[in-house]
Amino acid sequence: MVFISEKVQNLPPYLFSQFQQRKKQLENNGVDVIDLGIGSPDLPTPAFICEELQEQVKCPENHRYSPYSGCDEFKQAVASYYDRRYAVTLDPNTEVLALIGSKEGIANLIQAVINPMDKVLVPDPGYPAYRKGVHLAGGVSVTLPLDAKKGYAPMFQHISKDDAEEAKMMFLNYPNNPTAAHAEWRTFLDAVSFCRKYNILLAHDAAYDLVTFGKYRAPSALQVPGAKENVVELGSLSKSFNMTGWRIGYVVGNKEVIHALATLKGNIDTCQFMPIQKAAAKALTSDLTAVEKNNSVYEQRIEKLYLALTELGFHTEKPRGTLYLWVEVPKGESSLSFANRLLEEAGIIVTPGTAFGDNGEGFIRISLSVHAERLDEVIRRLKALNKRR
Ligand SMILES: *Cc1c(COP(=O)(O)O)cnc(C)c1O
Are 234 and 102 in contact (CB under 8 A)? Predict the structure, then answer.
């Protein structure tokens, strides 16, 4: 007897688990493996957020079920954050919904929006949760290629008229995982008007909205005039406040969609623990100096590795945001063969670009989630590898 649904049986295997298995084997053999595959900050959550959690945990009224859509403090904090950061006005009661991390939000949002066999435009390369979420909802993913030559902007001209007319939603994500590309305001303007023309819901994943460097400030898709008609934006505290394990995020924008997602989720979960929501509210309403401190750490790491890689003859752009470098593999190698060689010959784990879609071929993603001294070791090993070539 098979108790497993076809949906789950047919989920493509996560490419990365093979690397993790091999990592264990190598470590058992005494190899010091450096893991630059993890898309998660290594820095701790800022102390003031942890202290707020400790305070909130002491209040018995916070031990009960949260309101389904999130507590008022959290929803108001998200609205005030959007007002301050983007000059976008949100009604905390109807245009903001708390999520148990944005990954949960992505999967459930798709369920709330599409019917089986509906088409969804997904960026390639892109965060795998979009395609997997469409699969789980019985939908059909249509590849929206990103243009490597134009800063990984979406190539709407590659979407056939039929696909555009049949598509019900589109995902975008800037600053982008895995390519580390950023969006100019223009990209959102084009995306919103394309989606409006074809009656498509645009879901913008803004997981790295605060993880930016230098003078660059990431725009919000909701800044496009009239965007609330057909846009929702997902946000997360995971990357900006080093809170991946806390599981707290939000979705904002179109109120019909927010209401539908809240209705669906009301039958699945009962929101996040209130002390976590209230600590997250404190983070969002803070002066963001903790975020700036993090960003300067990432920026220094990126600078270091970018310079070394460039000297070694690798092609890569210096990112304005995210925790990643997106690096071209040497001529004659595939993403997978180069990632394998880095692990076997240098003890370094990176993610092959193909883990993010076919258009990721020819690239690897390097995550900057180790401290500077470890990066020095990475650079030493890459130099040794280069000499052996
Ligand atoms: C990390 C990441 C997420 C998931 O964030 P959580 O809020 O921790 O679930 C979503 N989208 C992208 C592009 C990410 O890189």
Answer: yes
